[in-house]
Amino acid sequence: MNEASAYAPANIALAKYWGKRNEELNLPITSSLSISLNQYGATTTLKEHTQHDYFQLNGHAIEPNTEFSSRLTQFLERFRPHPNFYFEVDTHSTVPIAAGVASSACGFAALTLALNSFLDLNLDDAALSILARRGSGSACRSLWHGFVEWQAGKLDNGMDSFATPLPQEWHELRIGLLLFNTEKKSISSRAAMHQTVLTSPFYREWPQIVAKTLVTLHSAIDEKDFSLLGATAEANALAMHSTMLTSEPSICYWLPETVATMQKIWQLRAQGLELYFTQDAGPNLKLLYLQQDEHLIQETFPSIISIAPWNLQNAQ
Amino acid sequence: MNEASAYAPANIALAKYWGKRNEELNLPITSSLSISLNQYGATTTLKEHTQHDYFQLNGHAIEPNTEFSSRLTQFLERFRPHPNFYFEVDTHSTVPIAAGVASSACGFAALTLALNSFLDLNLDDAALSILARRGSGSACRSLWHGFVEWQAGKLDNGMDSFATPLPQEWHELRIGLLLFNTEKKSISSRAAMHQTVLTSPFYREWPQIVAKTLVTLHSAIDEKDFSLLGATAEANALAMHSTMLTSEPSICYWLPETVATMQKIWQLRAQGLELYFTQDAGPNLKLLYLQQDEHLIQETFPSIISIAPWNLQNAQ
Predict the structure, then answer these.
(1) Nearest CB to B259; choose among A212, A239, A259
(2) Which pLDDT value is given to residue A9?
(3) B200, CA 20 to 30 Å: which among A53, B116, B127, B136?
(4) Minimal CA separation from B154 to chain A, in Å
(5) Backbone phi, then psi, for A118, in 5-degree steps?
(6) CA gap B116, B255 in Å, rounded
(7) Which of A219, A290, A209, A277 is nearest to A13 (CA)?
């Protein structure tokens, strides 16, 4: 095959992936559960290239000696048909890069799917998820739309640590992206995660918190209990940020706008609006609400990007 | 005696008092350590009143049926020379009320000292501290200037739970108050503390965190290691706020200005300025720095109230 393309959506975790038990294999300490962002994701096209690997992101060449470029080359090593085979990887992303909207997740997921197709690998879902995970942990959840759960697994080699989609659909559910800052982060989520696991006195409570979060999320999804889903996701995000705030030195991804918006959300909720947030390793907030409140929320937050995760007609 | 007056300074905890093992007696789960705020505190004058208790705060009568008024009456019950004896309590505070600058602490401390004098009780320091604690937990630390440590104690009756001043002085140390909001808080520290102990999954780690904070603060004070003092106090405050953020529902005293200032402090520190903060159950920050940087910090934060805790010539 001369060329192969694949699309993978970004995803937002409702139960966060925060902490690795194996840094090299991206094996997590806990399971996690996400929703994919439908049309916001990455399309990756693969071709053969002469002399060396060549990477493009949104039409711009990626410099060969950057960290991102090394991660890609390292990832591709295990796929070369022969040692002198080089790849051209052209990625178009519709999500802001490095803004805490898991752009590396959809990028590595799309790359994995494109490789499977380009090299006729015919890998099954678990194998694809495991390979995507090697590129970026949460990429293993970006192979599907809708709710996706990543089982932490127990094996040292990580062969039981992969994601599977949940069968439940929830067409009324909406996710809104509120982007305060799309500049590159001062500390990468990878480094923040590592430092938190090593230094936060609260981290030892994290695995039990996530275990409880997952049980509650499953019943919220089964019973379509939106208040329970929202409150549980929000509490999980605040617990994750609390482990960061208490690491040494403290890691604070919150900007003044982040806190102003949290306060506004809590105020609106006190007035009866069913609106919740989650936050990843960045200053932006991701809002959770239902279709019935979408107009009101778009009026309240004019810059919001409102996503219907199960309304897939426009997705690739 | 017809009238008696006493002054007590407000205090800022470097190792926070956060969580009670006995709500009625204000017995804490952990010990705590504070610095007193010199001339910022409360002066309380006591007289006999006819018919009923009468309370004034900064020249304004306190309504008889408010929560504050009930707390004062309840506190005074154990001091009445006879059942039909009523007190007039006139308090002048130089700290903003209910803004997280422990105005109830200096108020109950001053009242305890004034009662001791007015009624000729000749109580010793431990007894005074225990009585002040019954009014408001951290009031037991407001009987002295400088560093004060409150030993949690172990007895059910609280007779071993009182504060004592530390002998060390640190004349170069400064505390700066940055007040973003002096309005009444949405949730009292009393209620926030109660809810946190009951619902935060991180609270179980708090006692060990404070134990470690206290050991480190003692060596920072002994060795006049300002970086260690500041970093330890700041980490303790962030840990306390993390227990609040993870309570159900979440308690967030942070305002946009709080986070903007934290970020500014971290940025200045990265540039070499020895500047740290602590924060109580309110949005305001209390900065820690040394005399040598006082001018620079006053230029950077023009609204700061800079306090020299051991420069007592102006204190009452």
Answers:
(1) A259
(2) 96
(3) B136
(4) 25
(5) -60, -40
(6) 40
(7) A277
The residues that bridge with A35 in the sheet, in sequence order, are: A12, A147
Rounded CA separation A233/A34 (Å): 10
Work out the number of other CB atoms within 10 angstroms of the CB of residue A71. Answer: 16
pLDDT at res. B249: 94
B260 to chain A, any CB pair closer than 8 A? The answer is: yes
Question: What residues in A contact B254, CB-CB < 8 Å?
Answer: 254, 259
Q: What is the mean pLDDT of residues B250-274?
A: 96
Residue A284 has pLDDT above 90, yes or no: yes
Average pLDDT, chain B: 94
Judge: B246–A238 Cβ closer than 8 Å, yes or no: yes
Q: Which chain B residue shows the shortest CA-CA distance from A283?
A: B259
Q: Does B245 touch chain A if contact means CB atoms closer than 8 Å?
A: yes
Comparing A270-274, B69-73, B119-123, the range with the smallest average pLDDT is B69-73
pLDDT category at B15 given cuts 50, 70, 90 is very high
Burial of B290 (0-12, 13-18, 19+ CB in 10 A): middle
Cα dihedral A100, A101, A104, A106 in deg (nearest 10): 170
Backbone φ and ψ for A11, nearest 5 degrees, come out as: -140, 150
Prediction pTM value: 0.93
For residue B171, what pLDDT band results from cuts at 50, 70 and 90?
very high
The Cα of B204 is separated from the nearest Cα of chain A by a number of Å equal to 9
B254/B251 Cα distance (integer angstroms)? 9
Minimal C-alpha gap between A234 and chain B (Å): 9
The partner residues of A49 in beta bridges, in order of sequence, read: A86
Residue B286 contacts A, CB cutoff 8 Å:
no
Check: CB of residue A97 under 8 Å from CB of residue A130: no
* Residue numbers in B near A202 (CB within 8 A): 202, 205, 239, 242
Q: Which residues have CB under 8 Å from B153's CB, separation 6+? A: B27, B159, B160, B161, B162
- d(Cα A160, Cα A153) in Å, to the nearest integer? 5
Query: What local confidence, expressed as pLDDT, does residue A97 receive?
Result: 58
> What is the predicted ipTM?
0.91
Structure tokens at B96: 């903003």
Q: Residue A98 has what pLDDT?
A: 47
C-beta atoms of A254 and B254 within 8 A: yes
**Alpha-carbon distances, residue B310 vs B169, B173, B175, B224, B303 (angstroms):** 7, 8, 11, 14, 22
- Of B93, B53, B44, residue with least CA distance to B72: B53
Give yes or no for A186 touching B (CB within 8 A): no
B23 touches chain A (CB under 8 A): no
Phi, psi of A105 (to 5 degrees): -60, -55
Encoded amino acid at B84, one letter? N
Q: Do B168 and B222 meet the contact criterion of CB atoms below 8 Å apart?
A: yes
Contact between B9 and B40 under an 8 Å Cβ cutoff? The reply is: yes
Of all residues in chain B, the percent with pLDDT exceeding 90 is 87
The SS3 of residue A185 is: coil
Cα B201 from chain centre: 26
A229 burial via Cβ count (<10 Å: 0-12, 13-18, 19+): buried
C-beta neighbour count of A94 within 10 angstroms: 18
Q: Does B11 touch chain A (CB under 8 A)?
A: no
